[in-house]
Amino acid sequence: MADSLAPPGKEMLMVAWQLRKYFPLRGGVLSSHIGDVRAVDGVSFDLRRGETVGLVGESGCGKTTVGRLMLRLIEPSGGHTFFQPPPEVARRLTEIRDELRKLNPLGTETLAPALKAGAGSTDPTVRASRALLKELDQFADQYSLYRLSPAKMRKLRGKLQIVFQDPFSSLSPRMLVRDIVSEPLTIHHWGNRKQRYERVAELLTSV
Asked: Where is the AAA+ ATPase domain (predicted)?
């Protein structure tokens, strides 16, 4: 998935960094691990204040799993979700991502064996990648949702909410936009129906 090209200056709310979720396949008499279903494999994007990010794809492609990973409703197989990182950290995360992409156009997974081999590698790409990933890991210790304790996650639940919307229900809404916007006026007994709808029309025209 391509990274969002959000305009600079807006507060960074969340950063999805190479999210992965593999579900194990088991078979045989002993239910041995025989493979994985890669529900989500390397999804990255940014979400800034005032933005809406839409995940579009066929049924079963992993959209719901991404949402659950973002909120840590399920544990990831890899990657991070950063929530409200400070501006300087958000900026550095973007720089690290860009630098890793230049060093490893096919992804850091292609260097996995070399990265795990220890610090003795003389390959400049491996050494540079390892340094960047170490810096990323330090940020993750402070800001990744996946490094938070259960107690800290519970405190964040009020800020992190997930809404599932059936697209077919959107085609047959229970309420029209004018009814939704005029509802506060109705509750406070402001004007009659015609006056409320006229007021709503003015509001919708001005925004």
From this structure: 49-201
